[in-house]
Amino acid sequence: MSALRFIFTNTSRRYLSTSAFRSSQSATVGEHGQSANTWKYLSFFVAFPGVALCMVNAYKGEMEHKAHAHRPEFVAYPHLRIRNKAFPWGDGNHSLFHNSHQNPLPEGYEDEE
């Protein structure tokens, strides 16, 4: 009895899963082309202009900040900018991504000397 039950349940499961797959597959084959066009148009007319507007907004905000931002006064704290060993590039005192306007050396800013 259990063998017949096993065969019946497996056969019915296989039939239901493949018939459901076939019906869903046949219903959506024609819609894939339309869906691809929809996402393409959304990308070109919504996403790319949205990214461009965000870039313009960020650029304008940075220019406003740069216009009134000032560099903090240098204070030679003993626990900052400790050089136990020279950097292996340049003169050994500048970090790899050194910005002479923003990053002070242990003695102070470069353009104030």
Walk me through the structure.
The chain has 113 residues and is mostly helical. It has a domain at 71-113: Cytochrome C Oxidase, Chain G (Irregular). Helices cover 58% and strands 0% of the residues. The protein contains 2 helices and no strands. It has helices spanning 2-28, 31-68. The chain is elongated, with a radius of gyration of 33 Å. The chain starts with a helix and ends in a 45-residue tail after the last helix.
Salient structural properties:
mainly alpha, 113 residues, elongated, 2 helices, Cytochrome C Oxidase, Chain G
Instruction: Tell me, rounded to a whole number, the average pLDDT.
Output: 83
**What's the end-to-end separation, in Å?**
97 Å
| CATH topology name of the domain at 71-113 | Cytochrome C Oxidase, Chain G
Helical stretch tally:
2
Q: Which sequence of SSEs, written as H and E, runs from N to C? A: HH
Computed Rg: 33 Å
Major sheet characteristics: none
Question: What low-confidence regions span 5 or more consecutive residues with pLDDT below 50?
Answer: none
User: Total number of β-strand segments?
Assistant: 0
What order do the helices and strands come in, and which of them pair?
Layout: H1 2-28, H2 31-68
Summarize it.
With 113 residues, the chain is mainly alpha-helical. The chain contains 2 helices and no strands. It is elongated, with a radius of gyration of 33 Å.
